Predict the structure of Diaminopimelate aminotransferase.
Amino acid sequence: MVELETVVREVGKLRDEMVNTLVELIKIPAISPDYGYEGEYDKAQKLLEIIKDWPFDKVEVYEAPDERAKNGVRPSILAYYYGQEGDKSPRLWILTHIDVVPPGDLSKWTVTEPFKPLVKDGKVYGRGSEDNGQSLVASLYAVKAMMNLGIRPKRTVILAFVSDEETGSHYGVEWLVKNHPELFRKDDLVLVPDGGNEDGTFIEVAEKSILWFKLKVKGKQVHASMPDKGLNAHRVALDLAYNLDKLLHEKYDKRDELFDPPESTFEPTMVKNPADSPNIAPGEHEVVFDCRILPDYSLDDVLNDVKALAEEVKERHKKEINGKVLPEVDIEILQRGDAAPPTDPNSEIVVLLREALKKLRGKEAVVGGIGGGTFAAFFRRLGIPAVVWATLDEMAHQPNEYAKIDNMVEDAKVMAALALL
């Protein structure tokens, strides 16, 4: 296809411009107010500045209210480049997110500081470089290449740059779906380039349910030399966490080879301990579980098991102190995402993507599911086929995060092919 070959060459010529754009975006710490930061406003403004003279047919800004964020909003941008039939063309969405996670332990950033991007050895280092800057820039320049050549694709391309992916999408895709359902059509095709593998041969069509919950145990703080005078919350929490880990793994033990890993996962992650001395038996203890559960299982069933076991543990450690029955156990849901129906492996978007990868890279892609959650699930719940795909070194959320420049450029070519084929 001569048109595709021409666009592919043009994408290659834009390599340096792509790197410069990614560098400029990394400099802005678009971190959620959930972590005490200002959110995505400044980064969205920078993005609008970058594309202000590009010949998009329409650019829309949607602002989800969030009083914690800068200017009280969490912005998302939609940029439309119409296909050959104008706004009546079939449509391809490419959705990336503008928010990033916090940098974490700064002492582990040994190549550069998180928001001082560095170009080195064919990579761009910095927080948010791969997650999701690499794909955001790739999507931009897939369209820019067509613009430069005056080519209208077969499909209208809608580039969506959204907020709040890292903390649940409540102010991003979920907010758009709830408040602006008119934006979406059943025959839309959706690419979410926010997951993949090193050679770009994995197409994600299914996700597990996600459940994050916090167990908050309250006992009675006491001097460690006199444990009988109080109730050590650590001991209760350790009992609960150990037996809960065992119960969940044993009861929800199905395997589905579509997913990697093929089983449900139940991982204790964060722990909080207010005791600040070795000789204090603490009166409080918190532990967080991150659960990624196969679609076969109901999250309500899992939560009911958690509650039932918490009651058993409370009874096992029951003690009355100063007229109050302890321990207390509170279960707080931090995030819940019930699994969406999978995208049909024979759907148009999957077939197109496999065709593009075969044409451009000579590779056969495989289709599967993951434990991580993406906002592809919101589209699947609407009955809109969505796939997650990108070529990634899987540096997301790590210190010294980087984006490989070759991955960014080559993925832009595939994105353009999806619009043209």
